[in-house]
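Example record

One chain of 244 residues, shown exactly as stored in the release files.
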Amino acid sequence: MKLNTIIVEDEETSRDILRNYLKKYCPNIIVLGEAANVEEALVLIRNNQLDLVFLDVEMPYGNAFDLLDKVGDVDFETIFVTAYNHYAIDALNAHASYYLMKPISIDDLIKAVDYVTEIKVKENALQDQVLIPKTNSVNGKITIPQLDGFEILNTADILYCKADDNYTEIYLNNNKKKLVSKTLKYFEDALVNSSFARIHKSYLVNVNEVVKYVKGKGGRVVLSNGKEVMVSSSKKSAFLSYFK
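Predicted structure tokens for this chain:
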């Protein structure tokens, strides 16, 4: 799959190296343009339909995060390229698909491009289609602890679970909510063999209740009750694998 790309990097030498590496080792990448600062990058982003942006963190008159704030909601993936590893957490919070350190490793670059390509292939296959999970509806049950014992829930009745510190909010398809004194990780483990996907640090969703996927920085899903839930970029590829 061909990926329309731009390179945002203030150092000309670094742009040349990345462009040449992409041409030689990543033939599916089409570089539509290059920018040396935030304003030039904004013009390229607004005038092109992009699949991927290679983004340096530190630039004149702003940085990568300023650029993403100005763009707003986007439907392209980002690969951060920087000489500073202390930006990793910020990049993750900005839904970066990959984080490359300078000097760029060719193997890491190929791995990053392959990862983004896999995501875009899955996204395009799902676009404008009714989402059909590979798994069948779950007919199992799960117990949730209560002060006077426990309650049994049909897992098929659970729309999604949301983390609330050391508690978990369980939302059911009858518009009811249960608050349980267990972490979201507890339910992720308990439902590991069911059709539930951890799509975000705060959300575990019933894949059978997903009716729509919307592309974006990390993307988001729409559940059968109309609830929209963000998808973390680090969870996106695994989540899309649930669908045909």
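Notes: Residues 3-126 form a domain with the Rossmann fold fold (CATH 3.40.50.2300).
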